[in-house]
Amino acid sequence: MFVSEKEIEIRYAETDQMGVVYHANYVIWMELGRTQLIHDLGFSVTQLEEAGYVSPVMNVNVSYKAALRYGEKAIIRTWIVSQERLRTVYGYEIVHSDGSIAATATSEHIVVKKENFRPVAFERINPVWFNKYKEIAEIK
């Protein structure tokens, strides 16, 4: 299984009054992880958008395990859980620099035409990208 990693230096603005990372920032970090995975595989989100497509989030599930704090570093590990005709599921582990898990998550995405948001089979838009996701997916 191919796993991409992206290191994040936690900024003060990402924390709440308790000094821990505010929960919504994990979703932003997941996007950074997805973008890094796509880049590591040799593709680009802008490539998809320039062709007239976008990939909206359909579902996000985050399970928080241990707090991250200002000044620490977090590592976002991202992989493909599954790739179906219309749906891609990404998996994430957000970990402390010592490797202990701070959060686990998944996000589900589809590809739609930018102009009307009608779903389109990813394989029809970019068969190379689609097949790469199928190849590295955790669930075949």
Automatic annotation (TrEMBL):
CDD domains: 4HBT. It comes from the Bacteria. Keywords: Hydrolase. GO terms for molecular function: fatty acyl-CoA hydrolase activity. The keyword Membrane does not apply. PANTHER family: 4-HYDROXYBENZOYL-COA THIOESTERASE FAMILY MEMBER (PTHR31793), NOVEL THIOESTERASE SUPERFAMILY DOMAIN AND SAPOSIN A-TYPE DOMAIN CONTAINING PROTEIN (0610012H03RIK) (PTHR31793:SF27). NCBIfam families: YbgC/FadM family acyl-CoA thioesterase. Belongs to the 4-hydroxybenzoyl-CoA thioesterase family. This is Uncharacterized protein.
